[in-house]
Structures are given as C-alpha cells and as structure tokens.
TrEMBL record:
Protein name from the UniProt record: Amidohydrolase
Classification via SUPFAM superfamilies: Composite domain of metallo-dependent hydrolases, Metallo-dependent hydrolases
Domain Amidohydrolase stretches: 55-530
Tree of life domain: Bacteria
PANTHER family: IMIDAZOLONEPROPIONASE, PROTEIN LONG AFTER FAR-RED 3
Amino acid sequence: MTTFDTLILGDIRTMNPEMSTAEAVAVINGEIAWLGTRAEAEQLTAQETQDFGTQMILPGFVDAHIHPILGAEMARGFDLSEVTTTQQLDDALTQAAASTGEGEWVFAWGLDPTVIADRNICAADIDRSVVDQPVFIRMFDAHSGVVNSRALQLSGVDGTEQFKSQSEVEIDAQGKPTGFLKEWEAMNLVNQVMPAIPFETRLELFLEVLESMADEGITGGQILDRTDGMLDLVRAAEERGELPIRLTFSPWIMPGDQDEIITEIIDMQGTTGRRWGVDGVKLMIDGTIDNGTSWLSYPDINGQSTRPLWLDPASYREVLLRLDAQGIRTTTHAIGDAGVEYVLDVIAETTQPHAADDKPGHRIEHIETLPDRLVPRFTEVGAAVSMQPRHCTLFCAPDGSDNWSQRLGDDRRKDAWRTNSIRQTGAVVAIGSDWPVAPSDPLAVIAEGELRRQVGKPETEPVVPDEALSREALIAGYTSDRARSWGETDRGMIANGMLADFTIFDQDVFAVDADDLPTVNVVATIIGGKLRRPANTASAAR
Ligand SMILES: [Zn+2]
C-alpha cells in the first residue's frame, strides 16, 4: 500500500469545477496524489498529517504581476506616497536629506503627481529643500522620475538626448531640462550615475519582499521585468534555502534592445531552479495615462498619450511574432485603448495554439480604459488578460479629481478597468498587484476588485461599480484562471498531478463580507507539500 508523504485535512475548495470540494488531500514528491473525504483518508498511511480542522484550504495564490527585484530600485529610499501638499513634500525632502550622509544621493518614491497642479513637478520644486545633495524621486506610477539641479548636473543631462523609445527629458521654453524624466530610457540617464545598490543589499531586500508576500498567503508570483544579474540573485537566494514563494521570470524586451539581448532572453527560456523558472517574455506597447505616455485613440486633456512606447510599433509586432514562432509566450503592458487594440491585432496574427485548447498563448497587462467595441476581442483572438484592481481603487478618486481621471476626461472615465465586461465575454482574467506599484496583499486586492473602492471605507463612492468582479472570479484570478492565463497545467487547482501548493485561511474567504476580508488570517502556505507559517498571524504590510 502507498505511503504518502503528507496528508492534509481541512475545508478544501479545489477551484476545479469537476470536484469543487474535498476534506483531505495526500501529497507525494511535492505533488497531489490523492483527494477525498476525511473518512476515506482514515484508510491511508502518511508520514505526517496536517489537520487544519474547519479552516479553508485553497490552491496556492499566485500574483500574476510583481517586481520583487526591481522593487528595490522602484521603492528605493523614502516613501512619499502619503504626501499630498507641497508643504509636506518640502518637509519630507528636508528630513530625507538630513538623514542622508553629506553629499550623498537622496532617493524617494511613490509621489502622486497631483501634488503639483497644472504642470509636472520639476527640479526647482526639489531645489527649494535640497540643493547640495543630488535627489531622485520616482513617481508613483514608476514610469517617470524627477531630479533636482544637483542630480541634473552630475548626470550631464542637458535636454538634447535622443531615445529609442518614447522617452523624454522634459525641457522648458529655453530648452533646458526641467528635471522631469519620462519613461525608462530618460530615467536611465540619471540611474547610470547613481550608486548601484550592492548585491547583498538587493538579496536581503528581495528575500524580505518574498517573505512578506508569503506571510500574505502568496505561494507564487510572475516577475515581469528584467534587472541586471536577476538570475544570479535568485540563485544566491536559493543557495540560502528554499524561496518563500515560487517565481516565474518573464524578462522584458524593450524598444531598441539589440538582437543579442533578444537572443539572450530567448536562450534563457526554460532555465529553472528548485522554485523558479524563466517562462515567457514581457513587452510594453505604451507607458501610463498618469505620465501622458499611454497610447490612446485620441489625446488626453493635455494633448498627450498619443503614441506607442516603440517609436515604430511594427518593431514590437516583429518581436512578438518572432517569439510566438519559437513557442514563447508573451504578455504585453498595454494601458491605453489604442495600445490594447494594436496588441490584439498582433496576437490575432500569432500561430501558437491558444483559445482552441484553452491555453491562451499571449496575455495583455493592465487595460485601463477600453471602449465597448474592443471588449469582445480578447476571446476572438485568444488573448488572456491580467489586471490589477487596486490601480483603480488606490489611484482613482470616485469624484474624478485625480490625475488619471482628469487626463482622460469624463467621456472615458466610465471605461475604467472593465474587469467584469471583459470576463463576461469568456476571457481568462488573471489578477495581481504590480507590487510595489500597489500593495501585494491578495485579500485586499480581492476585496477592492469586488468593491471598486478602498476596503474598509464604505462611505467612499465606488469607481464604475458595474465592473466589479465576483468573489469567485477574483479568487480564480489568483488560482485557476491565473494558471490558465499562462498556459500552466500543473497548478491553479487542487487535483491529482498538480503541485501541492496551498494557501490556508482561518475563515471562509468566499463568505466573508468584502470589507471584512482584511480580518481573515493566513494560517499557512504550503509549497510542494512543505508547510510555512506566517511570521505573525495578522499578516504584514496591509
Ligand atoms: Zn508592472
């Protein structure tokens, strides 16, 4: 008779429509080998038993979109996300400079552009508080940054720079850089002269983030970016012990990337460690609405967001079709409706099997504004989608006073984050956080995907409440549908042959009131049959 490694008991919700509940699951070699009732389980032998009583066991939650390595740079230095006035900005920067060594770089992040009305924040706004030290502030959308005069001087940025992507060093009427830098290539000019974060520090920060995600009930995440030495970093992390969550790397290919970089990324596919692997490629067709760099079918209120990130989108098409021909899955950041449509048109040309066998070959990230006519097209071309409900609830004010809504105007605000309309067409919708752009806690993401407003604030008006997803759809977005969105057949459900990855909660997460979801505790996560308890039961970083 078979001896199982582990027998796990509890209120099991499989997310498998063929057998939606169970009371016991048995694991061998990190995989699910048996599923049944408590009574049936009494007949089994296992080396160990984990009995969770009436607590709820779900397939391990996987965040479809995270940046745990790049995050160290994206969230470097002082957190300005609570700053709402110029006075607060001055105070925060003065304090940040005072607590940084003389002449050293001051880093900050998370700043909301609405802190300065009617124009982009510029060097003079920072010079007011910090003159002798170079300052770099990354804006909250991570797609733009602002530096002070000292940093401009050190980097030699003079406003005459040319880019391979739709990046921009903003200049004033005299042609001098204002200090505002749009998109990666422009920010890189300054990044090059900043002190790099030491490898050991990056490793510590990386592991810290993964631990806190595991505390929140996450068992896996898809890393959608590319950072120097990222595989060295994950290998070093795995030398120390098991990763707290599984990781899928889908490195990005950016406009202007040379052929040798593209080849390197293609060759990297299939590289694996114990709990990580490289699978697929991230692409970006545009920037963000907040930054005026998304690709809209007609301009925003400032006359911006009219172009793709690729100076010639045909080069994007070429890269995607080349990857597709090699059987490599892609996911494309597409925020504006013109960008989304372009990506859909390219996906329509792909040849890899997708909708037909229920394995979408390609995916689209974000989709922040979408007219009716484009809603049915995801299923038509077999594209999966990946959306982040808290980009809507945290950064969109229900009264339309925020930068995103202002730029789009009233006619387009109603087309915000159409999660429900898209899912109703039968499209596969994966859910995620885009950490560190928004917090990673999946229960808060689920609550706000359903409420369309911030959790615990019932007095707040929701943003386009018709686009709310059901609890079931949101949980599927972290489990079964997330796996389908990436063509993964070995996870996302509790069924025989699947990886033994589970997330265990102390309450029924299908039944709890959405505003009470933050009171649900993560009891444990299990990866490949290995149990991990959260550092503290009231999980961190809410
Ligand atoms: Zn992202």
